[in-house]
Amino acid sequence: MKEGFLIGGAIVIIGLVLELSIGSVVWESFAWPVNGIVLGSFFVLIALVYRLRAKVHAFQFIGTYQAAVPAMVYAAVLTIIMGLTRQQSDGTWFSHMLTFWPFVLIYVYVTLILGVISLKRFRILLRHANIRNIAFLLAHCGLFLALSTSTLGNADMQRVKMITTVGESEWRAFDADGAIKEMPIIIGLKKFIMETYEDGKPKRFASEIHIQTKAGESIEAVVDVNKPYEVDGWKIYQYGYDTDMGAKSQISILELVSDPWLPLVYAGFFMMLAGVLLLVVYTHWRMKRLLPIGALFVVALCVVSYLIPIVRSTHLVPALQSPWFFPHILVYIVCYSLMGVAFVMALWTLLKAKSHQSLDNIDNLVYVGLIFMTFGMMFGAFWAKEAWGHYWSWDPKETWAAITWLSYLVYIHYRRYPHHKERVALWMIIISFVLLQMCWWGVNYLPAAQGASAHTYNM
């Protein structure tokens, strides 16, 4: 384990040297075909590491818990720094973590470990085809595919905003830097639609548009919040309007997104979901052993139905009016309930020096809780894509969700390490639950998140 932390530290130092010598990572330079070449080379590297693992000690080490746990700890710590620091174009290194070499290299290292471990488990699966091995392989391969393709594919993603006016046609849009871009489609705004609640707050806003494609096709469509329209590889989202005019607005702001790598990213997501579903089957026996879990489901449902105003609100803002809303909230509440019980048991075990059996029960709770947490993240990603055009944008809430997920993954992998220490594992549960509180409600009070989070709604 010490060797693993030394390797992680060396990677961070290499990253700092690169940051000082050549500057931050320029993701635009990875646009196609460079990203395709890099991904192919990465596959070859993983295959070579796996093939030569018996001859090179460092390669053999990469596929072990001693490598995986420290790598995830470094990833979690760097992501915590990101979660505590406002991300903006200027400022210190920590203000642009997505282009900060140590952050990027640590996640590349984690992805490399994922790839090698997936190859190892695939070979095991060929000899022992069972639910556990299939679930393991799907979850790890899915995460590997999602991480690698979303990162490299981001260089090819295009996001522009188009300001349309009633009765006029528009083919120009603006990128994030304000540069004008001519689009391959022409959009005419026929009508802006806005419905309000009795108190005047927006209930719905949408645009009736006419689309003229490059091929001469004429399309009538309605673009609504959470209901984008796709044409010629572009998704059109309802983004905004003239807030001073409200329902009388004569303009509508549309966001157009092209994401050619999305099918590969979604393939990774669905592989992860399939792996998680199989883990539900595999861990079903664990749930039978823990009688409190059935009660926790009931409590969670009550909390969702009666104690959370946003769920029972009849005045939801348009972004929350999505079929993903209730499933996303529900699985997270169940997850939080399970992790809360695991926290109490860990604290009690530390204070009373309970037996090894207590840790086994905590493991069972964390395994099931992490399954629901993964469901929640995936549901949130699908929802975000439909609402905002991107499945993961490192919004402060998303950043802390990743931190929490990583922290519980560290615990699970550490517990699998043959020489783990039980008190260290118990402290991991306590720290992870504190991080979960930051994700749940603490992030709302962080200066770094003020005015920067799309997860803050004015009810």
Walk me through what this model shows.
The chain has 459 residues and is an alpha+beta fold. Helix content is 57%, strand content 15%. The model has no long low-confidence stretch (mean pLDDT 89). Strand 3 and strand 4 form a beta hairpin. The chain is built from 14 helices and eight strands.
Structure characteristics:
single chain; 459 residues; alpha+beta; four-stranded antiparallel beta sheet; 14 helices; 8 strands
In brief:
The chain is of the alpha+beta class.
Instruction: Give me the count of strands.
Output: 8
How far is the first residue's CA from the last residue's CA?
48 Å
Q: Report mean pLDDT, rounded to a whole number.
A: 89
The run of helices and strands is: HHHHHHEEEEEEEEHHHHHHHH
Secondary structure tally, helices: 14
Low-confidence stretches: none
Q: Sheet with the most strands?
A: 4 strands, antiparallel
Secondary-structure-derived class: alpha+beta
* Strand line-up in the sheet with most strands: 1-8-7-6
Helix content: 55-70%
- Give the C-alpha Rg: 24 Å
Strand content: 5-15%
Gross morphology: globular
List the helices and strands and how they pair.
Blueprint: H1 2-22, H2 34-51, H3 57-62, H4 65-84, H5 101-127, H6 131-153, E1 158-165, E2 169-174, E3 180-196, E4 202-212, E5 218-224, E6 229-231, E7 234-241, E8 251-258, H7 262-282, H8 284-289, H9 292-307, H10 309-312, H11 325-352, H12 356-388, H13 396-416, H14 422-440
